[in-house]
Amino acid sequence: MLDIDNFRGIVFRAVDFGETSKILTIFTRNEGIISVMARGVKNPKSKKQNLVSVFTEADFELTKSKDFYYIKDGEIVNDNLHLRDSIIKIYIAQLFFDIMERMMLKNEKNEIVYDLLAKSISYLSLTNRYITVLNMYLIKVISILGYKPELFNCTICGNKKLNKIYFSQSVGGILCENHKNHDAIILDYYEYEYLYSILVQVYEKIDIINNRVDEKKILKILMNFIRYNVDISMPNSYKTLSRLIGIN
């Protein structure tokens, strides 16, 4: 008899396999990213169809062979159904996973990242402030994984009293007027306050974060920061999202 492993995880990719099956990529809380064979789930009579839908969080019962896990059963924790009401939210959720996948190794366990991702998807599903949620996720996940930008003082000289504030992706944080460099982008007071707030605030306090700033500018700053410091290519999900929301 095969041993049964229990995993809480979120499906973030599903590829058809044969006539009736799918190969899933699932980010699990206790084993990181794993590949799972879901046999027979394309059959209209299958009771597992909702269980294997992309962005569904569930408690999975899996068996394991040499090459694959196989779904035996499971129970949905959160179907995140409302994500499917918005094409923009779908691409944002996919971007969550694309960034995480590029920054983590396969089977790398990180419960803090998992909890952040699960909460981010849940809030994204229910809010109209989807760019705020995306920006909060990006700055938090890079901070957890060791790429936290310096936002409390000038990255070069340590000065905390800044008359003008610049952000530099190459230096890794804010700069004062005296140390601005070739890629420094000036931030007004409200943009800086927003950047600081999305780092330190929790989703439950999202309503106190000022969304009258140019959130697309902040998103572009964060994505360029990630591309430069983590050395990854821009995911296709971000390229499509940029076209949908009007980022040049």
UniProtKB/TrEMBL annotation:
Native species: Helcococcus ovis
Family label: Belongs to the RecO family.
NCBIfam families for the chain: reco (TIGR00613)
Gene3D superfamilies in UniProt: Nucleic acid-binding proteins, Recombination protein O, C-terminal domain
Record's keyword annotation contains Repressor: no
Gene name in the database record: recO
GO cellular component, one term: bacterial nucleoid
Name of protein: DNA repair protein RecO
InterPro entries membership: ARFGAP/RecO, DNA_rep/recomb_RecO_N, NA-bd_OB-fold, RecO, RecO_C
Signal peptide range: none
One annotated GO biological process: DNA recombination
Function text: Involved in DNA repair and RecF pathway recombination.
The entry's keywords: DNA damage, DNA recombination, DNA repair
Domain DNA replication/recombination mediator RecO N-terminal: 6-78
